């Protein structure tokens, strides 16, 4: 069944995007070396003053998510149903380890090891902002952040942040942060029509512990060379310096991730070869994520383009339709 094969293939691509992407957050840039890696000392969070504004709370939540060791249970509610999860986050030798395990439905297990990421690609001598303050300043240009009413989530006092996009190119959010640690306790994703399309909420949080040490910051890395680039992106979306060369990829699949610090899209490009499974062109839904598939002609080969993310459909379509290949826009083929 072509439809089922396409759904399975898109589900694989969606998983790859999730595994590859880590929201960039870190400390001010400095010279990095493997022998003496740059670290952020998590212990200093205990001495920081209480945030005064929504933007400061958001910044603090980025640090908290990297620096606290915890275990939790959560529920995810979306248009594709309700799932429960077990979550954990710990730090060993400055490296974070995150685990998410679904407790019902199909067995799904995600594990990710990583450092605090940089905000952009950069050569060793270039400035590559990695601080939550830098990310906060960036999203403040594209979203309006405000404080909501305090509530109680997972038996803990919570501070609510309302995050509203300043244009129609991205979704909004409501965040509930733990008043003590600033860890995210609940998130509602709000589409461009004002509808809540996903709720992710902790139902139980074991007392989190502030890591007594440092978390390693990622090295500065120059962007990889590739034969294509997006000819259009929503304002504020930046090419993310994350490793997308994961084992599940076919060697011929090129994958890049773009983000404004809050919203994210993934772009996959691969050749269409005889006997190779291809996706059906058009708009596809994967839970709350959407994917746009195009078959285009580059200079000498037909290519399959997939743009995926939790963004308005017209945004994904515009990205997919404006791929630039070797200095010229690719021409769309018949599916």
TrEMBL record:
Signal peptide per UniProt: 1-27
Residue intervals of the MucB/RseB C-terminal domain: 225-323
Alphabetical list of Pfam families matching this protein: MucB_RseB (PF03888), MucB_RseB_C (PF17188)
This protein's UniProt keywords: Periplasm, Signal
One GO cellular component term: outer membrane-bounded periplasmic space
Subcellular locations according to the entry: Periplasm
Domain MucB/RseB N-terminal span(s) in chain numbering: 53-207
CDD domains membership: RseB (cd16327)
GO process annotations (BP): regulation of polysaccharide biosynthetic process
Name of the protein in question: Negative regulator for alginate biosynthesis MucB
């Amino acid at each position: 069944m072509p439809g089922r094969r396409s759904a399975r293939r898109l589900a694989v691509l969606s998983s790859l995007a999730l595994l590859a992407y880590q929201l960039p957050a870190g400390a001010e840039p400095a010279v990095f070396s493997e022998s003496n890696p740059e670290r952020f000392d998590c212990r200093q969070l205990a001495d920081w003053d209480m945030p005064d504004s929504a933007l400061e709370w958001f910044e603090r939540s980025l640090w908290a998510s990297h620096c606290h060791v915890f275990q939790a249970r959560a529920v995810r509610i979306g248009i594709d149903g309700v799932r429960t999860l077990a979550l954990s986050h710990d730090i060993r030798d400055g490296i974070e380890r995150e685990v998410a395990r679904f407790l019902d439905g199909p067995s799904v297990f995600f594990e990710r090891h990583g450092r605090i990421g940089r905000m952009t690609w950069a050569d060793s001598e270039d400035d590559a902002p990695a601080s939550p303050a830098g990310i906060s300043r960036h999203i403040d240009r594209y979203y309006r952040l405000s404080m909501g009413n305090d509530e109680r989530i997972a038996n803990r006092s919570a501070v609510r942040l309302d995050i509203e996009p300043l244009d129609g190119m991205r979704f909004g959010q409501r965040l509930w942060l733990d008043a003590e640690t600033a860890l995210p306790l609940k998130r509602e994703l709000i589409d461009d029509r004002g509808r809540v399309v996903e709720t992710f909420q902790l139902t139980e949080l074991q007392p989190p512990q502030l890591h007594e040490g440092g978390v390693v910051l990622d090295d500065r890395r120059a962007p990889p060379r590739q034969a294509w680039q997006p000819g259009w992106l929503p304002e504020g979306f930046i090419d993310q310096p994350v490793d997308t060369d994961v084992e599940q990829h076919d060697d011929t699949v090129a994958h890049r991730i773009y983000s404004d610090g809050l919203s994210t899209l993934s772009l996959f490009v691969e050749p269409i070869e005889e006997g190779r499974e291809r996706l059906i062109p058009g708009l596809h839904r994967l839970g709350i994520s959407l994917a746009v598939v195009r078959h285009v002609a580059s200079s000498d080969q037909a290519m399959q383009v997939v743009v995926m993310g939790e963004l308005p459909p017209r945004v994904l379509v515009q990205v997919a339709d404006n791929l630039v290949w070797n200095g010229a826009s690719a021409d769309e083929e018949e599916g």
